[in-house]
Structure prediction request, 717 residues.
Amino acid sequence: ATFDGQGGFDMGSTTLGAIAPDDVEEGSWIAFDNGSTVHTISKLDFLNGSAAMDVLGSWLFLCMAMFFARRQKQIERAVDQDTIEICDYTVTVKGLPDDASDKEEVRCFFELKFGKVVDAVLAKNDGILLTLHRRRGQLSMHFDGLHARFIRTNRGERRMQKFEQKLEALDQRIRQLKRQKFFKTKLAFVTFSEEASYVKCLDASPRGWVARLFMKPEDQFRGMFPYTVTPAPAPSDVMFENLDVSETSRFWRRCAIGLVTLTLLVVSFSAIAFLATEKRRLLTSTDMNEEALALAIGGPGGGVFGTNASRLLASPTFGGVTLPEDFKGTDAFESVCRAELAACEVTYSEPGLLTLMSWGSFLTLMPVSDAMSATEKGVKVKSVVKEIADCGVTQERCSPARAEAADRRGCHACYCAGLTYHTITTTAIHAGGERSVDSFSDLQLSTLREQCDGFLEKPAFGDTVLIVATITAVTIINALLKVVIKSISAFERHVSFISLQSNIAEKVFMAQFLNTAVLLIVVNAAIPELTRGISSPFVRDVLFHGNHRDFDQMWYKDIGGPLMITMLVNTMAPIATLFGLELIAAFSRCWGRCTAWTQKRLDDAYTGPEFDIATRYGEVLMCVMVTMMYGSGMPLLYAFASFFCLTIAFFDKRFLLRVCRRPPRYGTDLAALAVAVVPWAALLHVLVGMWMHTHFVTPDIRSSLGISLASGSPEFD
Prediction:
C-alpha cells in the first residue's frame, strides 16, 4: 500500500494492478530478505499462484454455501419439532363460496370428513373495515392524549373538537359500510384438535388448481364448490387487511410496482452514469502542468523557459517556477526536445531492440533480429516508459545499466510534452496548427494519462468536489432507493408479512448491486461492439463507451480505488445509522417521560422502532456479491466484507435487544433467499476473476530477443 502525492492513502496500490502491474517483465521481481537468505518469486509464478488460490477460495466458498444451506434445513426441522404453534394444526382453505358466512357450517364440514375441529375462522373481503378501524384507533389514541392534556392544562379544546369530528365521520363511514356492503368469504382457517386430522386433511385435499379441477363432487363443499388446502402461516404473519385482494388485482399491483421500481432504477442508473461520465471526462483530461514540464526539461527555475526572476530563484519545485505570459508550450518545448528525444532513443535502446520516441509519437520498439509479438511489445513498452519516468524523478532511480541515463533525465518530460503539444500539419481532414492530442482515441488518451501521470494538472476544487460526489453518489442513491422501495412495496398488498419482507430484500439487493457493481462495467468498459447498431445517443455514447478495454492498471487506479472507497462507506454507513437510531430512541424515551399525557404514549416511547431485517438482508447480499465479483483483483474487499459482517452482526444484535420492539417470527423465507443467491456469487467470482487474472501477461522479453538467460546481461538483471 502506498500514499498518493497529496498525503492521502491510495486504494489503488492494494489492487492486483499495483501488485502485478503489466509494465513489469518476467523475472525475479518480488524479493524478501530475511537477513540470511533472499527469497524471490517470478511474476508468472506469482500470477499462477494467485489464480490457483482464487480457484481454491471459490471452491471453499461454494462448499461453505452448501454447508449453510444444509445446516439451515437441519435447524428448521429441529425448531419445527421442538415448538408447537397453532399453525401446526391449522390449514388455509380457498375456493369456498362467497356466501359461506356461517363458520359452523365450515367447521362441521371438515370435522365430519377429517376429525375434530377446534375452530374455523372466516376471512372476508372486509380489509377496508380493518383499515378504517386501525385509523380510528390511531385517532382515538391521539384524542385521549389531547383530552388528558386538556384536563391538566385546560388547553387544546379546539383540537379536541376537530378530532371528535374526525372520529364521528369515521364511525359514520364504518356504520354505512356495514349496512350497505355484503362482505364475501375469501378463505377460511380451520384448526384441528389432533395432528392426525391435520395431516389427513392435507393428504386428502387438493393443493393446486389442477387437482381442484378433478375433485369429486362428493368431496366438494356443498357438493358443488371444489377447494384447495395448504398449511396455514402463523397468525402473526397473516396480513388480514390484504386478504380481500384478489390474485388478479395483486398481479397487476405487482406489475405496477415492478414498473415503478424499474423506473427508479433507470433514473438512479442514469444519474450515476451521468456523474460517472463527468468523472471520466475529468480523469481523461490531458492538460499538462507546464511549470512541471519546464522544471524537468530546463532544470531549476525552469531554465530557458522561465522568467529572469524564476531563473535567479532556481526553485527545485514547479511551484516556484514562473513562465512568461506569452509562453506557448507548442513552440518552446519542441525546439529543445526534438534533439533530446533523439539522444534518448540511443540511451534506451538495447542489443537487438531499438527504442523510437520521436516528438509527438508514442514510444515504440523495433526488434532488429527476432520478431516480437504484440503482447511482448506492449509489456516492454510499459517497462521502458516506467524506467524513463523513474529516472526523471531522481537521479538515484536511474538504471546503472544505462550509461547516459543520468544525463538524460528530461526524456520523460520531453516525451510527454511531445504527445501533448505536437501540432498537425494541414491535411484533408485536419487544419494546420491543431494539436494531435485533440484527435486521440479513448485508448490513446488512456495510454497518455498512464504514461504521463506525473505531469498532468491536478483537478480544480470544483472538479474534486464532482469526483467526490461521484464516489458518494452510489451510497446516497442506494440509501434513498432503500427507503423508497420499502415504502412502495406495501402497495402490492402481500398476504403474509414474511413475503413482504422477502420482496423488499430482493428489490433492495438488486437495486444496490446494479448501482454499485454492474454500473462500473457498463459505463467504464470500452466495448463498443456491444452497442453497435443502436441509434439511441444515451446507449451509444454512455454504455460500454468508457476508456478501459480491460482490467488494466489505470482501471484499478481510476475505478477500482473509488469502488473500494464506496464499499468502505457502505460498510460504515449502516453502523452509523444504528448509532443514530439508538440515540434517537434514547431521546424519545426522555422526551416521552416529560411529554406523554397517557400511558399509551409512554408505552410507545419505550417500545422502540421495528427491526428492519429486510433491507439488512439486501445490504448484506449486495456486499457479498460485489466483494466476490471484484475480489480477485482487489483482495482488500474481503477485509471490508468480513469487517462489515462481523460488526453489523454485533450492532444489529445490540440494536434489536436494547432498542427495538419484539419482532414477529420471520420464518425461513429470508434465509432461503440468501442461500439461493450466494452460490451465484461464486460463479460470478470465477467469471470476473478469469477476466482479471488473464490480463497481466508475462512474456519473457529476453527469449524473444534471442538473449540467453544465463548470459547475465546487465540490461535485464
The first helix runs from residue 16 to 19. The longest strand covers residues 117-124. The chain has a mean pLDDT of 81.
